[in-house]
Amino acid sequence: MTAATPAIETRGLSKTFGHTEALAPLDLVIPRGSVFALVGHNGAGKTTLIKLLLNILQPTHGSATVLGESSAALTGESFTHIGYVSENQEFPEWMTVQAMMNYLRPFYPTWNIGDLLADLDLPPDRKVKQLSRGMRMKVALASVLAFRPPLIVMDEPFSGLDPLVRDELIKALLDRMNDEYEANPDSGATILISSHDLAEVESFATHVAFLHQGKLLFAESMATLIARFREVTVTLDPSARSTSFTPPTTWLLPESTASVYCFIHSNAEAENVEQQVESLLPHVIAIQSEPMTLRTIFLALAKSSQAKDWSRA
Amino acid sequence: MIQSLHILRKDLRHLWLDLLLYAALLIASSIVTPMIWNEANISNTPLQLFAALLKVLIPLMWLILISRLIHDEALVGDTQFWITRPYRWTSLLSAKLLFLLLCVMLPFAVMQWALVLQLSANPLHTISGQLLVLLSTTLIVWLPFTVAASVTSVVQRMFLWLLVIVIVWGAVLTALGSAVGPRMPFPFAPELMAIVIGALLMGTLIYQFSSRDTRRSRIAFVATTVLFVVMFWSLEQGEIPGLVNFSVQHHYPLSTNGPLNLVFNPSAVPSQDAGTGEHTIGKLVIARLPITLQGPGPITQLDHQNVSFTIDAPGYHYTSPWRPADLLDDNLMLFLPQGALHAAHGSNVHMHISEVAQRLMPGTPQMVTVASEFRVPGNGSCRLPSRLSGDNVSCRYPYEIKLRTTIQGPVADDSCSSGSAHPGMETLGTRFSGNGLDPTINIPLRLGGKICPGTQLTFTDYHPAENFLLELDIPSISLDRYLVR
Hints:
The complex is a heterodimer of chains A (313) and B (485).
Chain A: E1 8-17, E2 20-30, E3 35-39, H1 46-53, E4 61-66, E5 69-70, E6 82-86, H2 97-104, H3 116-119, H4 133-145, E7 151-155, H5 163-183, E8 190-195, H6 198-202, E9 207-212, E10 215-221, H7 222-228, E11 230-236, E12 251-256, E13 260-265, H8 273-280, E14 284-291, H9 294-312
Parallel strand pairs in A: 3-8, 3-9, 6-7, 7-8
Antiparallel strand pairs in A: 1-2, 1-4, 4-5, 9-10, 11-13, 11-14, 12-13
Helix pairs in contact in A: 4-5
Chain B: H1 2-14, H2 16-37, H3 46-71, H4 89-118, H5 127-150, H6 155-176, H7 189-211, H8 214-236, H9 241-251, E1 261-264, E2 280-281, E3 284-289, E4 291-294, E5 301-313, E6 316-319, E7 323-324, E8 332-337, H10 338-344, E9 349-362, E10 366-369, E11 373-376, E12 380-383, E13 393-398, E14 400-401, E15 404-412, E16 421-428, E17 431-432, E18 440-445, E19 456-477
Antiparallel strand pairs in B: 1-4, 2-3, 3-8, 5-6, 5-7, 5-9, 9-19, 10-19, 11-12, 12-13, 13-18, 14-17, 15-16, 15-19
């Protein structure tokens, strides 16, 4: 695998359970060295996608490569360079934290736990079954960071955690990214992280993909996304006669009153918003264009997708 | 291999308490079992109840131990910790099998060795029997338990699977075996079943470990159990006539000019009193025909006797399957279909009888003097009656009685002090102890009287000499005359 090879690439990857389509055919590229956030509601297909990528589930159609290897060909050996952390993972509950780390060590040629347990404030002599949910996630993360995998896949790792623990986990993760980048600037570690809480990934994700009801609505870098979406509010002259027009497809969720016209512009980076508005809406008094948070973009797209579904229905 | 040992070490650490409990049960069994040997004729003593409890607890311990072993790295589901770790399935499977070998099978074998030693028998002379017990227990218990554990995720589900399978086996075998009478088994039925069922169970286990395709593995497991029932029925019960006929043709050459002959004596009518026994089995009626075997001489014995016959009456033809049949002193016992009797309407029919058997030749007789405890040929150990064990000399053999053995000697009519004695004789057939926890076979000697201390008993074992097939044609016979009533 070269540095240019994406960490993960899917082609028409889909999964159906009975008559339910959990994941529609999906084309996705996750660049190496990125922190790729996979966002979507509960049941959007995030976990299914991750399980397909890790060969835990078999796809109905399509294929995927993970670190240059076909996902269907992933074996136990492959997990010496893929770390997986999930909220639903079952651990050997009877082991102590230290015993679990000792047990895992011989499986990984690159294992180096160092001060990770102390850094994450983990009690080595405590049994896993006696740990809180947050502590368990720390154990899971420690057991992954210890072997320094080039790809870390995390499925809802912060779900239900208190903010302090969440920050600790994110810090440990980012420290690991920085260490890896310093050691190898050409091919840093890649992190794929799924979440339904946008605020928790917005601060550190470099890329984001949005799954909604098994379909990918978009996948791009965070910078492009933030630049692309604008919440536009147009103040109109209420005394002027209103004219009917068809808004462009890049205008999402348009709403209007006699004096105000609001919409979400989904391509503000490429198009001149003011010129476009003025050409379509006469009698414009003022145009206000605000940047959006990931959360508001996410909600706008979800609503827009729902509205399209309803209109199709 | 290193990864296997690493996983094995982890399992040993995890299951040490279970293993300790298992060892305690086995030790208890090795102590209690010899104690109840002396209580063979008394039932429901506290010791016997405890021994009975052990017979339940040890298999239950196998179930729990195997379940916990396999479910520690459960193969069912997609949230297990180990499936996204660098496990090699070959290492995982070999670690689990190694655990079974070292921690389940070996302690069980050691417990049985301890029992054999307490019988004062030489364990080295029982290796074949011990291997047979281990092999059969593996195929009937440990391997099915392991496969059931591999297609389930918790012990309750595993137990449910096994329960359903046992109930289905029981129901099918009861239904099938209710109305057709005994049949000649295919000669290599146990070996063939062991190979096929063992290979299928092992194949299912390997498939599940390599692919974790639980749905297909469950189908394979169910199919194997169904096949077991079908094979058991077909092979053990002789339900595939082609196979049995094939074995008859290849293993029992027709004896035409040999020393053995079947002779029909129409003037003799054997006793037709069924006594307390049954005289019908389903739609079959038991008949005793005055047929004797001439020529073998008094020192020859027969084994594996089976008979097939045809009946021809006007408008009626019947060919019987091969069935076990004992050629007694003056008669041959057969199972006749009721349809043949209706077709004959009391008149004579034409009958053709084929009999196959194995001739046994005696070995060198060995003399044994009866004492309070004494060793007998065949690695057995006998003891005179004690206050608790009843009236007969009882003998115990470890694992199996390999050869048919005749025991002869003078026995007292009443008590040893009366001085009156008569010649006594008993024949022990070949036997296998089965898959119980106690590997010994207990046989009370009944030579037709009381065996007294100091008596010289003669043990003669019989070795297989030849297989043969005999034919007898009876142009006219009235079946009604010979029915057991």
